[in-house]
Amino acid sequence: xxxxxxxxDLKRIEEIxxxxxxxxxxxxxxxxxxxxxxxxAIRTGFFKTCIATEDGRDQVxxxxxxxxxxxxxxxxxxxxxxxxxxxxxxxxxxxxxDKIEMLSREVNALQHHVHKIMxxxxxxxxxxxxxxxxxxxxxxxxxxxxxxxxxLHARGFSQSELVLRMTREEIGSYLGLxxxxxxxxxxxxxxxxxxxxxxxxxRILNPEGLKMIVNPQTCSA
Amino acid sequence: xxxxxxxxDLKRIEEIxxxxxxxxxxxxxxxxxxxxxxxxAIRTGFFKTCIATEDGRDQVxxxxxxxxxxxxxxxxxxxxxxxxxxxxxxxxxxxxxDKIEMLSREVNALQHHVHKIMxxxxxxxxxxxxxxxxxxxxxxxxxxxxxxxxxLHARGFSQSELVLRMTREEIGSYLGLxxxxxxxxxxxxxxxxxxxxxxxxxRILNPEGLKMIVNPQTCSA
DNA sequence: CGCGTCATTGATGTGCATCAAGTGGTGTGG
DNA sequence: CCACACCACTTGATGCACATCAATGACGCG
Lengths: 221, 221
What we know:
Two copies of one chain form a homodimer. The first copy, chain A, contains seven helices and eleven strands. Chain A has a four-stranded antiparallel β-sheet. Chain A has a four-stranded antiparallel β-sheet with strand order 2-7-4-5. A three-stranded antiparallel β-sheet of chain A has the order 9-11-10. By secondary structure, chain A is of the alpha+beta class. Helix content of chain A is 42%, strand content 24%. Chain A has two domains: 7-129, Jelly Rolls (Sandwich), CATH 2.60.120; 136-220, Arc Repressor Mutant, subunit A. In chain A, a hairpin with a 2-residue loop joins strand 10 and strand 11. The structure holds a DNA duplex.
């Protein structure tokens, strides 16, 4: 949330995030086709967003954790165009979008904050397009792990250890790979001593090694 | 632009789009790292946006035509994170973003319009992720052609004929394919009588055939 | 007219998908 | 508390779609 707000502004913003909603593991926060009315700020838990086509194709478009906002896809057509599924029991703030628009007309910092959140999502997706369009399997998985651990670290978790909240299949869907390839690539990293993997627990032994895989040029090692 | 505005509002919006800029073919409207200050509405011409990494990777993230807006990537960090290159001589409206924010505080329709533009870009990128993550070469190219011709048709051009403003290599970069694969896939479509291709001129002979390739399920044919 | 850029086409190679078998962890009901 | 079923995961064998390498052809521009 934006900083340096006056008392009354702060209070009005708090009203927006007053309503909470719990979402059980495996259940949707919203689905493709649902009427759009609110953005959701994740308080606790972990989500995936994905689009499913009629012909059975399914693409995970992102994984979201505490502090991140989901639902932006719904603004343009007034309906959501993807599913948001909780990967573990979660709680979100329900932020009615009409209230966000109303208040952001008066609070400049909120207005700009909203714009930045949307722009950040666009830039993030550019990165995913680069990954999907030009990287090999090892590079994709390395980039994925580095991104996850970096976001977790920013939330006070370990830089080197993480618990995957999603299956190999979901990782594969996100990275444009099959689950077997994800599994094999993990095994390869283990052989090379770059990570330890025990089920969904991952410990990064050699972060430089991972960075090296993603981008050989800009690495000292 | 939004509809049903009052006279004075309309006039103030016109002030925002007053400044024009011409961009010669092959030259950048902005580059990665440039300070962000404005969004650009394309009046005439055709652009590509792309990200280049230090290690020589290059990914086209989109092609934009008249009526579309570019520059949204710059909001989050106050600097652009991709290059926007004109693929033909072009003219854009320079829309200072601080003025957009100022005016959209007063004109609700403008505010919501800006939000929709950003949301639309997010949804578009979801579609590209689906394409890059789960489609085969033929499906990608068919989807690309259908998308282009649909956008051109919405601007009053033919439903069946189009001129590609970009090279095979740029198409390939966008679709996550090599230029040879793009070329071969075009040739295959020609053999099958789905399209006629003469250099960059493409005539779609059998649009149902293309839709069939993208999504076999939901096609009558 | 000659050169550079873009495109086509063929031959070969490879990274990942696919198919298939088996393992381990988890939860459930007897 | 154990037997069983189920699911997620791993690992191997094989195949294929697309990449790579290479040669040639077609425009367009100075």
